[in-house]
Amino acid sequence: MKAIIHIGLKPGVLDPQGRTIARSLAHMGFDQVLGARQGKIIELALKGNDAVAAEAQVKDMCEKLLANTVIENYRFEIVAQD
Amino acid sequence: MRSAVIVFPASNCDRDAAIALAKITGREPLMVWHEETTLPQVDFVVIPGGFSYGDYLRSGAIAARSPIMQDIVRKAGAGLPVAGFCNGFQVLTEAGLLPGALMRNKGLRFVCRPQTLKITNKTSMFTKAYKDQDEITVPIAHFDGNYYADDETLRGLRKSGQIIFKYVDNPNGSINDIAGISNKAGNVLGMMPHPERAIDALHGGTDGILLFKSVLESMR
For B22, how many CA atoms within 13 A lie in the half-sphere containing its CB? Predict the structure, then answer.
């Protein structure tokens, strides 16, 4: 199994990198872009195949290390290994 | 006063902190490696600046979960004075000893220059020796110094006198110009500027000395 974790800044927290990306896209002529938010993806290889147990563990990992919940939100999915 | 400096992989102000502590306290600090699980008996701990663990994941995030930090969190909770400068501030917020978080500078640039600070609480154990001074100038050198806290946290900081330093001419977008804060009990300080790099006139200024003297005076 693996866990795919998406981490991003909470709404309302200023994201200067996202803003710069949006501005650059606008400069390039992509006039549909209203804004951009930058985040990160962490993929974890997990042993076993108990998705319910994995879900609880990954949530704990996000709370304790992977995300800083003062400024960041996270969401994740547990998927079968390719 | 016995002191300790915590050393993480890629700390780079640990020697500066050690020199400052030796000069001002008259005793060489203990250099404590991050893999230690027990902090030696000391009166004051400095978490130094640098790029602990290469700033991987988030600045200070990995260092905050290192073995020595678990003991520091415990002892700081029991009143041990702890100060974190620059990366040390990031480590203290990540460890939950200080509220809020430090994010990428608003201007997306590494800022490195002398910085004037307003001392906004002169009764703290880290600033009480600055009797005749309202402002100090010390170096800053950081990429992730943009302090953020939600409104409720900010109200709490203001109410309890936990905002210790503010920037004059905000260099990084920090909310309310915050440069340094303490915990509610007042024994843990975090600040992005580097007082440990301002202890020798040959290096451009000595405004950092009284911060260490304040701690020393508080021990008496």
Answer: 11
